[in-house]
Amino acid sequence: MSSIRTIALSILHRYQQHGSHFSSVDSILTFTEFRSDYGVYQGNHLTDADLWLLLRYMTCQYGLGVDSNVRGYGRSHVAIKFPEHNENSITATTTTNNTNSIIMDPPPTNTISSTQINESDKAIISLKTTCKALHDQVNKLQLQLESAVKQSLSYSSKQQKPQALYAVKRKLQLEQILNRRLQSLETMETLLLKIDASHNDIQIIQAFNMGVASLKQIFNDNGLTVTSVDETMLNMQTTLEEHERVEEAMTNGQQYIFTAMGRSNKINEDDNDDVEENIQQVSDNNRLTLPRIASQEKRTRNDLEDDDDNAHLSEIPPPPPSATPNSELARLHAIFSALPQIPSDPPRSKQRRLRQLA
């Protein structure tokens, strides 16, 4: 058979794997509950003597709390309290030669002080034993109630009216007692639930306190205060406002540049319009001046031709006197002879003008 140490470690391992260490109610057991939960090891039923030996060993080596005189429902009970869970106490279970064994650190050389069973633990034992007794009473009353119903039906079928009435009255009494027991049981179980919940609340509050202390320590180490946060927020606001002003200045500058470029383009367009208008005027003037110059040149040429003709006419000798002086030819010759002589060369102003036109 396995050693007592192996059995003790197996019990601790099963207890921790079951998750009972998270509940203040389940961590406290009576001897009856301990025997029911851990009285069998690898198919072998352990006697009460074996269990008491295990309890003494676990008390010395693993700090198990045992109190043999705790008042419960109707009598004294043995209270057994498991120590707080320690993850370093147990490792995983392995299988060697078709037997389960738990790999553990070497057993401690010195004994560990046992877990103390306080008044709240004793109250839990009292409530648990009362709930156990109430459950037994409810089950017994339920059986008695079913028996009374069967008796009343049996007496009624046999036409035994007094016995039937007695069975009915007993049934009513049992129902009343059963209802009271159920109400008491509900109250007890509610108390146990609240105790368990309060234990969990204590754990949560402790975690809150540790978190608050850690947060305060972080604040103190890093100088994080309301004043520093306000200063940071003020600096951030100032920086953002400065950035906004810079953005606004850049936007205004770009708008000014775009406006100036627009005015410059407009001025260039106006200048182009003036240039085009001047070109159009020059073109129109040229169209008007060229025909006038051409007409002047034509008139000048005509004048020159007329002068040449007059010069030739002056060189023509007068016709001989005719026998008929009254003829038309004689009259014209007399008229041209009376006219002043025109120089053969054009005047200097006309020559200069002709050179310019040429």
**Topology as a string of helices (H) and strands (E):** HEHEEHEEEEHHHHH
Extended strand count: 7
Structural class by sheet pairing and helices: mainly alpha
Query: How would you describe the oligomerization state of the chains in this entry?
Result: single chain
Strand percentage: 5-15%
Number of H- or I-type helical stretches: 8
Residue runs with pLDDT of under 50 for 5 or more positions: 88-110
Give the strand order of the largest sheet, numbering strands 1, 2, ... along the chain.
1-5-4
| Overall geometry | rod-shaped
Query: What is the gyration radius calculated from CA atoms?
Result: 68 Å
Mean pLDDT: 77
User: How far apart lie the N and C ends?
Assistant: 148 Å
Biggest β-sheet, characterized?
Answer: 3 strands, antiparallel
The level of helicity is 55-70%
